[in-house]
């Protein structure tokens, strides 16, 4: 695998294949129930569930948060390889005559606001900060 730039980050090109394959598998599982509209936190929770079935599930942030019912909000989930994977997934669905997956950011914003308003104590980890 060769190195390539994605935005302002240098990554191994094989990483994209792994991420796209992982997100594709997660989305395939999610649409089995007939739903096609998901919040970023629902997609991330499904990623955590999938990781729980793997050896590294216990050591991954997503797997640990899923196991402990801790929501992860990421309004920028479509920025980067996850967005590329959702785009590719929808392209396949369109070719098969199926409805595309839609990512509903507004529901997650409502969820974050509700948690902040009803909680006595809250905390967060902000990674990046470009969209804060």
Main attributes of the structure:
two-stranded antiparallel ribbon; two-stranded parallel sheet; 52% helix; 132 residues; mainly alpha; globular
Structure write-up:
By secondary structure, this protein is mostly helical. The chain is built from 5 helices and 4 strands, in the order E-E-H-E-H-H-H-E-H. It has helices at 13-31, 40-52, 61-67, 81-95, 105-118; strands at 3-6, 9-12, 37-38, 102-103. The strands form 2 sheets. It has a two-stranded antiparallel ribbon with strand order 1-2. Helix 1 (13-31) packs across helix 2, helix 1 (13-31) crosses helix 4 and helix 2 packs across helix 3 (61-67). The N and C termini lie far apart (33 Å).
List the helices and strands and how they pair.
Blueprint: E1 3-6, E2 9-12, H1 13-31, E3 37-38, H2 40-52, H3 61-67, H4 81-95, E4 102-103, H5 105-118
Parallel strand pairs: 3-4
Antiparallel strand pairs: 1-2
Helix pairs in contact: 1-2, 1-4, 2-3
User: What is the helix fraction of residues, given as a range?
Assistant: 40-55%
Tell me the number of strands.
Answer: 4
Task: Evaluate the radius of gyration.
Answer: 16 Å
Strand order of the largest sheet: 1-2
Number of helices, where a helix is a run of at least 4 consecutive DSSP H or I residues: 5
Shape: globular
State the end-to-end CA separation: 33 Å
Largest sheet, strands/sense/barrel: 2 strands, antiparallel
Order of helices and strands: EEHEHHHEH
| Percent of residues in β-strands | 5-15%
- Uncertain ranges: none
Structural class: mainly alpha
Mean pLDDT: 85
């Amino acid at each position: 695998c060769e190195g390539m730039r994605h935005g302002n980050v240098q990554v191994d090109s094989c990483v994209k294949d792994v991420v796209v394959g992982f997100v594709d598998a997660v989305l395939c599982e999610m649409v089995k129930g007939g739903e096609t509209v998901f919040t970023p936190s629902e997609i991330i929770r499904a990623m955590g569930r999938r990781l729980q079935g793997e050896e590294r599930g216990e050591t991954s942030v997503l797997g640990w948060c899923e196991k402990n019912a801790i929501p992860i909000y990421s309004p920028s989930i479509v920025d980067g390889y996850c967005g590329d994977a959702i785009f590719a997934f929808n392209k396949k669905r369109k070719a098969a005559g199926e409805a595309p997956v839609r990512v509903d950011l507004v529901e997650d914003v409502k969820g974050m606001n509700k948690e902040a308003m009803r909680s006595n104590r809250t905390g967060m980890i902000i990674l990046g900060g470009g969209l804060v």
